[in-house]
Amino acid sequence: xxxxxxxxxxxxxxxxxxxxxxxxxxxxxxxxxxxxxxxxxxxxxxxxxxxxxxxxxxxxxxxxxxxxxxxxxxxxxxxxxxxxxxxxxxxxxxxxxxxxxxxxxx
Length: 106
Known about the structure:
The chain has helices spanning 9-14, 30-45, 61-66, 93-99, 101-104, and strands spanning 2-3, 19-25, 51-56, 74-79, 82-88. It is an alpha/beta fold.
Protein backbone atom coordinates (compact mmCIF):
# COMPACT_ATOMS: atom_id res chain seq x y z
CA UNK A 1 0.00 0.00 0.00
CA UNK A 2 1.23 3.45 -0.88
CA UNK A 3 2.31 5.66 2.03
CA UNK A 4 0.74 9.09 1.63
CA UNK A 5 2.04 12.25 3.30
CA UNK A 6 0.78 15.80 3.71
CA UNK A 7 2.66 16.63 0.50
CA UNK A 8 1.07 13.84 -1.58
CA UNK A 9 -2.42 13.57 -0.02
CA UNK A 10 -4.26 15.84 -2.47
CA UNK A 11 -2.86 14.12 -5.55
CA UNK A 12 -3.12 10.54 -4.22
CA UNK A 13 -6.51 10.83 -2.52
CA UNK A 14 -8.52 13.92 -3.38
CA UNK A 15 -7.59 14.04 -7.09
CA UNK A 16 -7.93 10.26 -7.63
CA UNK A 17 -10.38 9.06 -10.27
CA UNK A 18 -11.92 6.27 -8.20
CA UNK A 19 -12.53 5.37 -4.58
CA UNK A 20 -9.60 5.61 -2.18
CA UNK A 21 -9.55 4.16 1.33
CA UNK A 22 -7.09 5.94 3.63
CA UNK A 23 -5.84 4.03 6.66
CA UNK A 24 -4.67 6.31 9.46
CA UNK A 25 -2.15 4.40 11.59
CA UNK A 26 0.96 4.76 13.78
CA UNK A 27 4.01 2.61 14.50
CA UNK A 28 3.04 2.07 18.15
CA UNK A 29 -0.55 1.02 17.39
CA UNK A 30 -1.10 -2.73 17.84
CA UNK A 31 -4.59 -2.79 16.29
CA UNK A 32 -3.16 -0.93 13.27
CA UNK A 33 -0.68 -3.77 12.75
CA UNK A 34 -3.63 -6.18 12.74
CA UNK A 35 -5.63 -4.17 10.18
CA UNK A 36 -2.84 -3.43 7.69
CA UNK A 37 -2.49 -7.00 6.32
CA UNK A 38 -6.27 -7.20 5.93
CA UNK A 39 -6.30 -3.98 3.93
CA UNK A 40 -3.39 -5.22 1.82
CA UNK A 41 -5.43 -8.36 1.02
CA UNK A 42 -8.50 -6.31 0.09
CA UNK A 43 -6.37 -4.06 -2.13
CA UNK A 44 -4.78 -7.07 -3.85
CA UNK A 45 -8.17 -8.73 -4.42
CA UNK A 46 -9.81 -5.55 -5.77
CA UNK A 47 -7.14 -3.69 -7.77
CA UNK A 48 -9.62 -2.31 -10.31
CA UNK A 49 -12.25 -1.08 -7.84
CA UNK A 50 -10.44 0.56 -4.91
CA UNK A 51 -7.09 2.10 -4.02
CA UNK A 52 -5.93 1.73 -0.43
CA UNK A 53 -3.25 4.02 1.01
CA UNK A 54 -1.75 4.60 4.44
CA UNK A 55 -1.18 7.83 6.37
CA UNK A 56 1.05 7.74 9.44
CA UNK A 57 -0.94 9.95 11.82
CA UNK A 58 2.13 10.77 13.92
CA UNK A 59 4.18 11.91 10.92
CA UNK A 60 1.26 13.73 9.22
CA UNK A 61 -0.74 15.32 12.04
CA UNK A 62 -2.35 17.98 9.86
CA UNK A 63 -4.19 15.43 7.70
CA UNK A 64 -5.34 13.58 10.82
CA UNK A 65 -6.59 16.86 12.30
CA UNK A 66 -8.28 17.93 9.06
CA UNK A 67 -10.29 14.70 8.95
CA UNK A 68 -10.95 14.52 12.71
CA UNK A 69 -9.02 11.33 13.33
CA UNK A 70 -9.13 10.95 17.11
CA UNK A 71 -8.64 7.19 17.36
CA UNK A 72 -6.59 4.80 15.26
CA UNK A 73 -6.80 2.70 13.27
CA UNK A 74 -9.25 4.84 11.36
CA UNK A 75 -10.16 4.34 7.73
CA UNK A 76 -11.65 7.11 5.64
CA UNK A 77 -13.22 6.31 2.28
CA UNK A 78 -13.04 9.03 -0.36
CA UNK A 79 -14.60 9.10 -3.81
CA UNK A 80 -13.78 11.88 -6.24
CA UNK A 81 -12.33 13.97 -3.42
CA UNK A 82 -15.34 13.64 -1.14
CA UNK A 83 -15.25 11.83 2.20
CA UNK A 84 -18.07 9.28 2.03
CA UNK A 85 -17.45 6.88 4.95
CA UNK A 86 -15.46 6.51 8.15
CA UNK A 87 -14.57 3.18 9.76
CA UNK A 88 -12.94 3.30 13.20
CA UNK A 89 -11.17 0.47 14.97
CA UNK A 90 -9.69 -2.87 14.08
CA UNK A 91 -12.22 -5.13 12.40
CA UNK A 92 -11.98 -8.56 10.78
CA UNK A 93 -11.81 -8.78 7.00
CA UNK A 94 -15.51 -9.66 6.48
CA UNK A 95 -16.58 -6.62 8.52
CA UNK A 96 -14.34 -4.27 6.52
CA UNK A 97 -15.53 -5.80 3.25
CA UNK A 98 -19.12 -5.30 4.41
CA UNK A 99 -18.39 -1.61 5.12
CA UNK A 100 -16.90 -1.31 1.61
CA UNK A 101 -19.55 -3.45 -0.15
CA UNK A 102 -20.93 -0.60 -2.25
CA UNK A 103 -17.48 0.23 -3.58
CA UNK A 104 -16.15 -3.31 -3.96
CA UNK A 105 -19.23 -4.32 -5.94
CA UNK A 106 -17.99 -1.82 -8.47
